[in-house]
Design brief:
Blueprint (H helix, E strand, L loop, with lengths): L1 H29 L7 H18 L3 H34 L16 H8 L1 H32 L6 H9 L6 H13 L2 H8 L10 H29 L3 H9 L4 H12 L1 H16 L3 H6 L6 E4 L2 E3 L6 H11 L3 H32 L1
Antiparallel strand pairs: 1-2
């Protein structure tokens, strides 16, 4: 009993020292103090914390430590790259942060300024329209491709790889490729044949549809693979029974296949919604957000094709207003979280009904 007590005391002491070292290293880093030993202090804190947990005299705790060790790299990376920046970003949005230092606490001023900007409100409306159109078209095209590539036709593997290939191309590169296609290649030459000597990207409404075309071309192949996986889970016995009962292809599709892949539809809808909201790279390289919009809330805008993510980037980087850009990013996070939660709840309800 005395031995267990001493082991507990030692393990708790080691654990406390490790936590203190870990916290001290993080504070030194966040405060920007140039101390050479902060890296060693961080590593020592992690090692001592894990050692203190492992030294605790209980097999249950040993198993928990082993599980935690395997999860720690993922949890630490997620915390450092997502959770901590999110918390700091929310804090920065209430200040006059210039990207380097904070001078004053400004409260809700940045949020008020954001909603007073017609360009920001226009970007929200444009992004919402883009998301709705793409949720429908990407899922429709991807589902039709999945039906084609799950059939018994020859060369199915080749078609699957071909349709998925655009998803492997980076968005920046993809935008410049399609910019060349819309402006100078086949589409650009076609406009000249019909007497139009300018790129269709110079027309705001046409440029918006060009972004949609590129997004569908890039993303439909990825969603197609998920639909193929869902279609392959439909039991063959059910399909054979429906064929014996005289069901045609349309009845089989709408009354058997689609209801049985309702969970797959939920996943694909969620992925297309979130990715369409976060559209940035293609938007930046294809149009740069440029486009003339007259008389929007009494103003003439020059960001007619600028999505919400690009508007945040332009505010923070191009206009060097980091605090306002951070406030817009927080609003973006809130909007995306609310829409995603509502979409998942509605889709889950539809699954139950189907």
């Amino acid at each position: 009993m005395t031995g267990n007590t001493s082991k507990k005391a030692i393990s708790i002491a080691v654990l406390v020292v490790g936590i203190i070292s870990l916290v001290a290293a993080l504070i030194i880093d966040f405060m920007g103090m140039e101390l050479e030993f902060r890296g060693a202090l961080l590593i020592a804190g992690i090692v001592l914390t894990l050692a203190g947990m492992f030294m605790f005299p209980s097999e249950k705790y040993h198993r928990n430590v082993v599980n935690f060790v395997f999860l720690f790299p993922l949890l630490f990376t997620f915390g450092v790259t997502v959770i901590i920046p999110l918390i700091l970003g929310i804090g920065y949005s209430f200040t006059d942060w210039d990207g380097i230092k904070i001078n004053n606490f400004v409260g809700l001023d940045n949020y008020i300024k954001a909603f007073q900007q017609p360009s920001f409100l226009y970007s929200i409306i444009l992004t919402a329209l883009f998301v709705v159109i793409n949720m429908i078209l990407v899922n429709l095209v991807a589902f039709l491709l999945a039906l084609l590539c799950s059939s018994k036709m020859k060369g199915v593997g080749f078609f699957r790889a071909t349709y998925f290939l655009p998803n492997l191309i980076g968005g920046i590169v993809l935008g410049y490729i399609w910019q060349f296609a819309f402006s100078k290649a086949l589409i650009g030459l076609t406009t000249k044949v019909f007497g139009m000597s300018y790129s269709i990207l110079s027309e705001t409404h046409l440029a918006f549809w060009c972004i949609i075309i590129v997004y569908i071309w890039q993303y439909a192949g990825y969603i197609m693979l998920i639909y193929i996986t869902g279609l392959n889970t439909v039991p063959r016995e059910v399909l054979e029974a429906s064929a014996i009962d005289g069901a045609n292809a349309w009845s089989t599709l709408f009354q058997i296949k689609i209801p049985m892949i309702a969970s797959t539809i939920t996943i694909c809808t969620f992925l297309t919604l979130t990715n369409a909201f976060k559209m940035f790279d293609v938007n930046l390289s294809l149009t740069g957000g440029n486009g003339s919009v007259s008389d929007f809330m009494g103003s003439t805008l020059t960001n007619g094709t600028e999505m919400l993510a690009l508007n945040i980037y332009s505010t923070a980087i191009n206009k060097n207003n980091y605090a306002l850009g951070q406030a817009k990013a927080v609003l973006f996070f809130i909007i995306l979280a609310i829409v995603s939660i509502v979409q998942v709840r509605v889709s889950n309800k539809k699954e139950v009904e189907m």
